[in-house]
Backbone:
């Protein structure tokens, strides 16, 4: 009521009228934009659900039992290659990246070298993966005179995951409370002993989260492997002579991964009659793997948050 | 006090040396990659005497594929143009959505933002690019063929643009959201105090204040789009012609490298022309890094001024 009387009192004042009209207008615009934002937010979640659902369902619909076999109709070999390649690449990039991260966090002095190192890491992480693949092709295949092999692929993937592991390690160590190091040095440990026994173990959960993310990225990498790991695979699961080109565990044999397999199956004229089913199932498998890894990383980092807030 | 322990000390120096070496190795690796790319990539100009202008602006592409013969044409303008157009289109599509999503998860509903959108964005990032390409090939390409009756059966700039847009929107969203979050709360309080509505606060105060961070996100997204190879190669149609409209197929740098590199004679004119493309990609990604630094420095100057 009060509002109405206020209005009648000033009804002749057109300025107030205009302001009120403006206020009403801005309120409508505000409501409208809020609606738009909610719409976009909802759209994204819907898009993800539809996409993920489509990939997984399409992969499962075309399922036939031989898909799991280790033959040309199945993707067992490719799956094994993918896991093996990621493990190999982690064996290279984890020690290297962690060591470099420790150097950056603990030993390097602020100055030209550290600045240059940061620029290098930034450049490495922004390199298109196909360019890294070409570098790998040139150095690990052409210059060595080798054929496509898993090891070359693993090295190329290592180049891609090195920046991530290095920066995660550096951040993880830098974010530790300084008391940890001071305490350790105060009881007589050397710098390295403090790093090895105190800093690295406490920073480990965060580093592992980074490694999991790097591994997840490795699973889906394709462009860097095109000309390094090769686009064929021929395994004999009864052959365990490490030097034989058909031995599954030989790292110096060609090894097509799941992601590359999808690339290879894309053309309609692909020789395999089940090309579509194979590619769809591989996609589903890859997406599920990535999903698991991202959930694992989230779970770990949440657990870490809890632990840190509990003890600090 | 404990006597100096030589074993501990030598261990200290050993490990210190080792991690320093690993740090330097990264520098060496980066330098090696740049060096190899430059040596290989300039071969077109040094060994086969083509001009840089020809490579950049001519659309005559007919390099000789043999180790000894040369004298073909290495104009890569179609590929460069294809890369630029697809990236531009992707940005045009992704930009409004990403910004809206970033605003939604920071200003409108932080609860839904952190609980639902953040994880969703992380999953989007994790989906491998070939899978995006495969979805583009199985959903998008037939869709465009049926709806727009495109001439090349749906393989088109539009398909590539949409696939790239989906791939770069998480990057732009995350970086923009961070930028928006770092806008001081005071700005908002002051604006609300003067009677602004939320939308007014967002578009007149928060977004302009977060501008530099948003630029960084856009550049990062662009650099991801520019370097993406297989997903684009699957849907772009690989036709060596300038696109007439967004429904016509074309080709881009990464697709050309991915599909042709393995079939060319090493060291030949064709081979080296592809390496020049790789060098071009490398230079573009360096340019993007430089841009990010320029933007960051501008921001710092503004804040200290």
Residues:
């Amino acid at each position: 009521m009060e509002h109405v009387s206020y209005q009648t009192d000033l009804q002749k004042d057109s300025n107030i009228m205009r302001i009120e009209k403006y206020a009403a207008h801005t309120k409508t615009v505000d409501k409208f934009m809020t609606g738009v934002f909610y719409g976009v937010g909802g759209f994204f979640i819907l898009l993800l659900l539809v996409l993920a659902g489509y990939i997984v369902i399409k992969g499962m619909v075309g399922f036939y039992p031989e898909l799991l076999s280790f033959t040309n109709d199945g993707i067992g070999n490719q799956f094994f290659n993918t896991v093996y390649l990621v493990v190999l690449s982690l064996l290279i990039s984890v020690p290297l990246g962690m060591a470099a991260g420790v150097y950056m966090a603990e030993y390097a002095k602020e100055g030209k070298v550290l600045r240059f190192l940061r620029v290098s890491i930034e450049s490495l992480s922004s390199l298109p993966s196909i360019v890294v693949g070409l570098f790998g092709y040139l150095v690990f295949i052409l210059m060595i005179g080798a054929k496509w092999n898993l090891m070359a692929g693993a090295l190329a993937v290592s180049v891609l995951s090195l920046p991530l592991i290095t920066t995660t390690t550096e951040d993880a160590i830098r974010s530790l409370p300084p008391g940890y190091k001071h305490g350790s040095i105060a009881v007589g440990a050397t710098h390295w002993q403090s790093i090895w026994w105190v800093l690295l173990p406490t920073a480990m959960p965060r580093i592992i989260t980074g490694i999991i993310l790097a591994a997840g990225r490795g699973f889906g990498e394709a462009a860097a492997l095109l000309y390094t790991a090769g686009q064929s695979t021929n395994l004999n699961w009864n052959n365990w002579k490490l030097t034989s080109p058909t031995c599954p565990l030989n790292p110096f044999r060609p090894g097509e991964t799941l992601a590359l397999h999808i690339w290879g199956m894309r053309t309609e004229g692909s020789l395999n009659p089940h090309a579509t089913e194979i590619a769809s199932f591989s996609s589903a498998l890859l997406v599920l793997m990535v999903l698991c890894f991202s959930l694992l990383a989230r779970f770990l980092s949440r657990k870490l948050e809890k632990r840190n807030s509990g003890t600090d | 006090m404990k006597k100096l322990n030589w074993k501990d000390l030598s261990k200290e120096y050993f490990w210190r040396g080792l991690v320093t070496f690993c740090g330097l190795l990264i520098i060496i690796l980066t330098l090696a990659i740049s060096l190899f790319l430059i040596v290989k990539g300039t071969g077109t100009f040094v060994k086969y005497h083509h001009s840089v202008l020809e490579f950049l602006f001519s659309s005559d592409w007919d390099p000789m594929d043999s180790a000894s013969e040369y004298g073909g044409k290495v104009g890569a303008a179609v590929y460069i143009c294809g890369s630029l157009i697809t990236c531009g289109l992707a940005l045009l599509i992704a930009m409004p959505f990403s910004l809206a999503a970033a605003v939604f998860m920071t200003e409108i509903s932080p609860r839904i933002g952190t609980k639902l959108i953040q994880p969703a964005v992380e999953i989007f990032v994790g989906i491998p690019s070939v899978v995006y390409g495969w979805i583009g090939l199985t959903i998008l390409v037939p869709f465009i063929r049926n709806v727009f009756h495109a001439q090349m059966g749906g393989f088109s700039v539009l398909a590539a643009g949409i696939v790239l847009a989906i791939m770069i929107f998480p990057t732009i969203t995350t970086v923009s959201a961070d930028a928006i979050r770092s806008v001081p709360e005071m700005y908002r309080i002051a604006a609300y105090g003067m009677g602004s509505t939320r939308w007014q606060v967002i578009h007149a105060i928060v977004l302009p204040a977060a501008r530099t961070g948003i630029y960084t996100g856009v550049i990062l997204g662009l650099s991801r789009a520019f370097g993406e190879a297989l997903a684009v190669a699957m849907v772009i149609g690989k036709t060596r012609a300038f696109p007439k409209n967004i429904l016509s197929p074309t080709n881009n740098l990464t697709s050309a490298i991915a599909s042709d590199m393995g079939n060319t004679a090493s060291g030949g004119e064709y081979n080296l022309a592809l390496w020049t493309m790789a060098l071009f990609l490398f230079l573009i990604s360096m340019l993007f890094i430089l841009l990010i630094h320029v933007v960051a420095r501008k921001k710092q100057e503004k804040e200290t001024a």
About this structure: Chain A has two domains: 2-59, 68-311. Chain A has a mean pLDDT of 85. The longest helix of chain A spans residues 14-61. Chain A touches chain B through 88 residues (CB under 8 Å).
